[in-house]
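Exercise: predict the fold of this chain.
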Amino acid sequence: MSAQAYKPAVKKKSKLKIFLFALIFFLTLIIIKGIFLGAYHITSSSMRNALIEGDFVLVKKSSYQIRTPDKFPFTPFKIPSFRILKRHKPERNDVVVFKMNEFLVDTSLTEYDLVKRIIALPGETVQLKDRSVFINDEEINNPSSVTFNLNSPFFYNKAEQKFYPFKDKTWKINFYGPVKVPQRGDTIQINPKNISIWQPIINYESGGKFINVEGTVITYKGRPITEYIIQKDYYFVLGDNRFESVDSRFFGFVPEDEIIGKVWMIYWSINPAIETGFWDFFNALRFDRITKSIY
């Protein structure tokens, strides 16, 4: 048999190798993006100065747990996700990306991935007094990136708003608490006065709206209850730009299961206030922020 008879087979093998290489490369990207790393764009000033508008950040999704992807790769279509491995617990001052479940907040907040700093851990009591934060009655140091913009319209507009858990009308954006962060195993006394506070968490942990209130009688899945045992750990988060941030003061505690990952570094940064013409592009780049680690 002549050598020419083998040429088509060689070409087919080459094409097969290219296809397999491309498939492996694509699957590797899916695994990295879906399980280990995420890329996010900062669009608000709530985390200034650690993160500012126009920063693009990498998030370590595997910092606390390893989960299967919750979206079909490179599409907005959601798919069921489950935890493969639990790793480390989130720590104070970690800057994290998370989502808020529809049972916990208004649906207007469930569409977004949020980024804030963890301030209080499960079981701790947090209180804000002007520019100071107290954990279990002891003042903690604010990170160097924290800012207080006294001239912010947000600060004045939110000064008289009701805050979570709507306990005291005297609370303000800079005078808040004390509030105890729920942790797994806590027993909560339930009554008609506080059911509005705990009902979202009970619904979230139950995966449905099983609480019913009729006068002074509160039922859970059809049975009267006077107490409830917390099933998950929660965290209290704040934005570094303390007077321009919608955070746990407004939407409540963040469940550990809803934390996507820890912000790792800024991989790209461009000033959105500068026009994006060809020449403006280079002026808009913020080289001093690129590769900056986030603490």
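Check your answer against the key: The chain has a mean pLDDT of 88.
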